[in-house]
Amino acid sequence: MARGPSSPVFLERRSYRRRRLQDAQRLLPVLGMLLWMVPVLWPTRNETGHITMSAAIYYVFGVWCLLIGLSFGLWRGLKRKGDEGTEPPAGDP
Amino acid sequence: MASLNLLVGVSLVYVAFLFAVAFAAERAAVRGRSGWLRTPLVYTLSLSIYCTAWTFYGAVGYAARSGMEYVTIYLGPSLVMIGWWWVLRKLVRIGRSQRVTSVADLISARYGKSNTLAIVVTLMAVVGVTPYIALQLQSVTLALSIFSGPPDAEGLNGLNPLSAGFWVAGGLAVFTVLFGTRNLNANERHDGVVIAIAVEAVVKLVALMAVGIFVVWGIAGGIGPMMERIDASALGTWELDRSRWAALTVLSAAAFLCLPRMFQVLVVENDDERHVQIASWAFPVYLMLMSLFVVPIAVVGLNLLPAGSNPDLFVVSIPLAQGQTGLAVLSFLGGFSSATSMVIVATLALSTMVSNHVVMPIYLSLKPGGASMSGDVRNVILLARRLSILLIIALGYVYYVLSGGSGALAAIGLISFAGVAQFLPAMLGGIFWRGATRMGALSGLCLGFAIWVYASLLPSFGQDAVLPASFFDVGPFGINWLRPYAFFGIDGMDPTVHAVFWSLLLNTGVFIVVSLLTFPKPLERLQGAQFVNVFDHSGQARGWHASVAASEDLMIMAQRILGASEAQALFRAAARAQGMTGHLPEPTPAFLERLERELSASVGTATAHAMVSQMVGAASVSVEDLLAVADESAQMLEYSSQLEAKSAELSRTAGQLREANEKLTQLSVQKDAFLGQISHELRTPMTSIRAFSEIMRDAEGLSVAEKTKYASIIHVEAIRLTRLLDDLLDLSVLENGQVSLNSATGPLDAVLDHAVITAQASGDGRLRVTRDTAAGDTMVTTDLDRLGQVFINLITNAQKYCRAAAPHLEISVHADAERLAVEFRDNGTPIPDAARALIFEKFARVAEGDGSGAGLGLAICREIMARLGGDITHVPQAAGNVFVVQIPRRQMSAGQ
Amino acid sequence: MDKHVLLVEDEVNIIEAMRFLLTRDGWKVGTHSDGATAVSAIRDARPDLVVLDYMLPGKSGIEILTELRALPDLAGLPVLMLTARGQSRDRELAERAGVNRFMTKPFSNSEVLNAVRDLVRV
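^ inputs. structure came back:
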């Protein structure tokens, strides 16, 4: 159901920040999915051009570190903005 | 070289250590000093039971065989954790608010506490997890076999894999029974187990990383040389089965949520929702570290060890080959930890499901008197769980024996994953879609599971083992499109991807379609609303309505399940909360709800619900249920009534518009009619004037008499025109409110007299006018000229339209404190009802008279009276007409 | 033989003027001033031309015209309609009802005489 009419239209700056951090949090797995599906596009052994295994390892684990870092950052950010607001007032996206 | 005996000894010491840790933890929990037990760190580490012996040993083997593909098994869970906000958050909240004990309990509770569904999910989970347990047996047995020395001349090593597997299985069973079912925990949480698996998580991480560090820095000589070695090896070039990469990432994410043991640690053992947020980044770190050294170990193993070595064992065999016995033992312990923690939690979770959803309902229905029989049910439950543990591990062993103990670890693990992933549609559908129904979930689960068994599980035993080889070539009974690896004739898909794709696709499809087609029962709808909107109202499940249940009966039952002291404490607390002094509370709905929740922690939602409903003699749905359903539908009603209100408003607006339109149309018609009238009234005299003036100008030989006659016609018509224009002007001024009133005080009689004289002067004299002067003379303050105009008009009208043989008009005056009423009563033909509404309108001439009036008279009268603060009305009579002119005694401030 | 014109009109002064004009022009002029009975009056009088007012007491000129056109023996009777309302819609209605000539009051005498002559010659 849509957000009820009781949801305020304007939020104070802090809540607004927190909402955007939550948005980022929601989008993070999408980013992860996209980045980790990039190897599907790489040429494999029998195709022209090739990617060395070391490059693949650097990429996959690099993305992993990036996601962990972002996730950690968001957690820190949300914690600083206050725990009381980790749930939005009404329902789910 | 470490002897087998040493390994067994080390293992036993390690197990004893774990026991000590678990015991200490439980003691601490009982003393209430459990704060350190339930920290985010412990929660994160407990999640590591995802990384089983399959990870510890199998990942390296997987990498040696298929390159980077192994990493997908860890990418999926990482994504789930990083995206905790979407699913985990809700699962955990639901698990906590509904006191869910297992994944079967969750699905059963969501779909109206259906025990059928619980049984189906339980059976599926047992079947699905069996290969996984077999995998643990296999890996531990394999690792042991490495230590027992190289294969002898006949190709057999010193260890019989079957008997070793049996001993490993027996040991794990005993370990699990001792660990998990020492007592029946009040809340289905296992503090001791959780802390033990946390310790094991550390051990396996340390062990794997130790081997990894040894390989990278000890053997290869650093990161740079290691990478060069990797690129130079057989794995050096990127290779990938694209469909598997995507499918396995999704599959592992699904399995991460659906595996009974993962559900146990993620949801059931969760103590604080905030731990999930911390684990959202901490657990991916763990997974990444576990995956980090896999490729290096695989590459070094392929380089160093003789061809034909089992890559699944590189983690142990590399240190052994390098003479690092200590590291090898540590590595073995890591694998052992992985296997034991997985088996413990998996069998605990499964045994809870089996005892709650299969054994207990059967037991209760077999016992006469149901839940109210005597004896401590707790012992029955414990026994049921222990038996379930033994049964599950036995099944794992059977699978291990049947599959020959030879399959690659990764392949076995994936079969398990695909099996439990079948829960995903029912689970996600259940928590996000209120329309999901029990029948939908049941159909989807059964179909998905059937496909999995046929396309994934049975083929895993090998062709001709269970399914004849002909099935794979031409399909069962020659039905080509049912070949296990090529449904619908679509060849060339990877078997795992094929099974996952078709089972999940058809599972989801059937789940959705059947849900759309069936209608849920009230309890289903209610639970659906509570699950889907768990953040809106984290209130508890619907209440009980206890009319029959005696508190004693409930007490007896509760004692049997919760234990005497706990049950008594619970009841005493409830009684105190109700303000009663005794030990037994009133069976209020709130108390019954609480009791059911406590019971459900021990025996599962469906069983607890069944027991309490048996005790209180309620039907499956109570008044409360219905009220709650009504509540839910009230929300919908409110929404739809808002819509209705809006549409009512719309139709009202539309009605108003229609009215306005009609009015406008009427006005337009009136305007046309008015213009037509004015035109007619002006043109008619002008026609005469023009015609006669032309005659007088053009015609020759007119007599003087004729000339005089025509000139006088012109004269009369000119006057008529003038009068008409005067009237129009008058009316327009009156209507626009621009009239200026000359207020004066004078006798009403004088005004009337003047009016009668004036009117009669222009009339034909037939009308007899009489005055009733009984009321005496009355003074009036108003615009006397205007009032006189009204009177003249009325008298003139009577003259014109009164068709009586002897026309008569009687004028009388009535007075009260406020007003004067002047009546004009004639004896003419009454104005028809239909016309009465019109007579005060402009140009309304009821009967066409002599045409000398334009029909503006009464309209002008009405306007004048409105300005003077009075009014003029027509009163219908049996014979004749009465016009009443009402004048306020004091002139009002009208006409401003 | 003098042609016969029937004036159906309720305004006395207009009747007076028309009668004067038409009589002088050599017409035999009959008059009728009630709408309700106009049709039967026309049938009785059998005129060569009817001059019909638009607004008549009892029945409007359009109604009378429509009834005339519906009668087989009078369907072809020339009708000159006069109106003082001066609205274009009235002309349309009259033409639809089958009027031969439509004139708006006030008219010039020569206009009306020409119209009468035209209609009767046809």
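Strands of chain C lie at 4-8, 28-32, 49-53, 79-83, 101-104. Chains C and A do not touch (no CB pair under 8 Å).
thumbs up if we can close this ticket
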